[in-house]
Design goal:
The protein is mainly alpha-helical. It has 14 helices and no strands.
Amino acid sequence: MNIKIFVLALSTFAFGSGAFIFAGLLEPMAAELGVSVGAAGQLQTVYVLTSALAGPPLAFLVGRFERKRVLTVALSVAVLLNLACLLTPGYGTLMILRAVLGAIGAMAGPAASAAASALVPPERRGSALAIVMGGMTVAFLMGIPLGSVVGAAFGWRATFLLSAGLSAFALAAILIFIPRVTPPAPGVGQGLRGAGVLPLFLSTFLAFGANMTITTYIAPILRLQVEVTGAGVAAFQMLVGVGSFLGLALGGRAADRGAGGLSVTLGFLGLAAAAALHGLELARTGAPGALAYGIVGLAVLTGSTSLFSIMPVIQTRLIAKAPASAPLALAFNGSSAALGQAFGGALGGALLTQSGALSVTFAAGLVAVAAAAFWQFAHRGTTPV
């Protein structure tokens, strides 16, 4: 794959790391700022929420501009805002800066994906988009843990310096390696209206909703299944990263081969299977042993692999259906993913409180099966991308 695509992935890595760069330092952060740990956690929530809400309108405004320029401006602003976060003394100002950072990240992600799709031939578009998405996965595997290490050594404010450095590195790489990427002329394609993209957005919403119904509450679920807490939970969470890499590779290849329709159906069924495995282990009695660890590990790996195998196919289809509005379409898709995460978290939380963990896995499986049925219904008789 062209090195330019990996360079573009640095932008999603930088913004993905920045979203949760201080996740492991909420307690000292809250103590210094004079707020509760929950309030400190909202500095992460506001980033994600602003990204979901501001992504589509910002993508609409900047969609006509040359892609490299959008990325360089976004990363330059990210450097400055992270340095401002480093220096600001108050919680309120920090909240505002984080909200603006989330909006900037929402503008950069679709621009990077649109640039990647333009820099490769159509038959390699799925793999290119998977690599750009992979930058977010690497953020969870490397960038965010590195923030915890740096913050523990030098204080939580140092995480913002690290985030500024990651953005600066991505900015330098894009300036050196990425050529100008001119967007398609306004008359090319149908735009979003009448392009048939709504089923794709809904599919993204359902995929993340099914997955996050369980994943949001993986810590208490794992405690009930295999009696692990703390570092033990982190060990299982590492499987999410492994699964995401596998899923992106599988989904990218499926999109390249034009076999995306079947792979998305299998992805949804894989989410249902993962929920069933979680439920099976919750329903079993007796002390946890090797079999329990194997079932839960397989469930976590299957769920993340299935989720991330779906996304490259949906992104590829969005760009094919609305080439002139690709950043806007991808921004709406990102918002759909964020809303799906919120839906899954709300559904899982309500069920966990009212009915117990087993009902959470049942609901997740039901959403996944419904998503598979919807995908088949919405795309019956259509030709693959």
